[in-house]
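Case 211 in the screening queue. Each case pairs one protein sequence with one candidate compound; here the compound is S-adenosylmethionine. For every case the pipeline is the same: read the inputs, emit a complex structure as tokens, and attach any notable structural observations.

Predict complex for case 211.
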Amino acid sequence: MTVARPAGGPAVMARRAEPRGSVDDFPTPPWAVRALTEWLVGSGVEPGGLCCREPAAGRGHMARALAEAFSDVHQIDIHDYGTGNLDTVADYLDEPFWPFVDWTITNPPFRLAEQFIHHALSTSEAGVAMLVRTQFLEGVGRHGRLFSRHPPTAVLQFAERVPMVRGRLDPQATTATSYCWLVWDRCARGPTRLVWLPPCRKRLEREEDWT
Ligand SMILES: C[S@@+](CC[C@H](N)C(=O)[O-])C[C@H]1O[C@@H](n2cnc3c(N)ncnc32)[C@H](O)[C@@H]1O
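Case 211 output:
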């Protein structure tokens, strides 16, 4: 959700509240995806040669950035936005037997994020990464159902904001919402690592991302 920034005033918090039944159409700026793939490579993952599933691909903004690193990216979405990027139009959660992939990576619809994570964990050989609001980390119920049983191997907290707006990418957008990547890397050992992703937008964004 965008933030209204009154002239001379501080950013005003606006929640990314979506009506029930909304598909939660908030594309991810590609630089935020490159921040993940760069970190994965730095931590020993070699995505070249691996197959990735993007199960809530929308118009393919995240998938295109993933394809810069992974050999193959299979795109699914419940809604066809008419952009020609999808391999499969389907409700990801309705299909219990997706073929296994190496990695599943997405920015899931917030309301269904927990179910997406469980589904991804059960159909990914090497790992799962989910871009979520940092607020997703709290909650007694979610802790019991998810984090106590399947703690992520890393939480990558963006030091800078990742602005997302409904239905499009907007280089001018601002936000007061904080985002992090949750990573479950099957090769990683030990307790959950908390990692800060230092400011990287300037370095990782490309002009063509916004066109
Ligand atoms: C937050 S957007 C992310 C879009 C894309 N991953 C990106 O980052 O650019 C969430 C996407 O999930 C899709 N979606 C919602 N419910 C879904 C479901 N049950 N199965 C598959 N896709 C779903 C929406 O249509 C929307 O494109």
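Case 211 observations:
- The beta strands are 51-54, 72-77, 88-89, 101-106, 124-133, 154-158, 179-185, 193-197.
- The chain has one domain: 30-210.
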